[in-house]
Amino acid sequence: MTDTITLRRPDDWHLHLRDGVLLAAVAPGSAHFARAIVMPNLVPPVVDAAMVRAYRERIVAATGGGSFEPLMTLYLTDGTSPDDIDDAATVCTAAKLYPAHATTNSAAGVTDVEALTPVLERMAERGLVLCVHGEVTDADVDVFDREAVFLERVLEPLRRRVPGLRVVLEHMSTRAALAYVADGGDDLAGTITAHHLVIDRNDLLAGGIRPHNYCLPIVKRRADREALVAAATGGAPRVFFGSDSAPHTDPNKLGPCGAAGCFAAPVALAILATVFEEVGALDRLEAFVAERGADFYGLPRNDGVLRLARCAPYAPASVATPDGPIAVFAPPFALSWAVTVQESAEATP
Ligand code: DOR
Ligand code: ZN
Description:
This protein is an alpha/beta fold. About 35% of the residues lie in helices and about 15% in strands.
């Protein structure tokens, strides 16, 4: 039994860092990642290159200009133009498609995806990746079916209309999403969060409702979770890690209409180490967190290293903010791995 895991320094291909006092409070929880794709669903949303640049500067200030590199995204709206894409391409790695009203701060998201075709074509030309929140919002579609229906009704037609566009189906939560990505060819990838690997809808709803386990896409059946574990740990091609770490203060999560999101970044690697070890696949963890994502995005793999050490069992503590505490996502088991060393490329001899 190994007590230390050494990895190429990992990346997080889907992260919410928020803004203002929350940004300051949560950014340290991601400092051990080399890079992260940072989501643009602020209030107001990050809809043009100038806003992206300003947000990037706030992130760099909050992370102390250290060895963490934010990879920025543009928030697509019905008003985004191909010219906006030209501007965004100078500062962004990707653009994000939120179907309007699908999740947190998505009211300004896209209502007519087909009308966005010229924008998506310009993205393909510029090499900007499309990050997708893959859920329909139609009131007649059950919340547990929204991802599977999105694949048929929205994503497949979109990809046929814009060949050559590189697409990431984010936070996959169903067997249907895994199958779709597996068959989707080299321009399609999918991310998996740490929390979707360790909780299913029983952990959300059985024996009492647990708002800290509420996220979108909502966690599904155990069979879906098991399929996600098999894909992540089995080395499925074009499937890699994106935490979708989405902090909300406890007052916002615990009210009568609680916000969706799990603040998982600080413990994500400890969770992944547990999951991969349990199925005897620790040798595949590095590919999931530090190789396949970089390869898909066409970015170099990181040079630095990160080390995890086995430790006494612990439960994550909350992070304090002036707006109230933020509970760190707690899996349904005690954590027993901790990040001990993280060296950026510059520090590596
Ligand atoms: O659970 C989620 N929280 N899912 C999302 O898609 C958005 C995120 C957030 O920003 O709170
Ligand atoms: Zn997200």
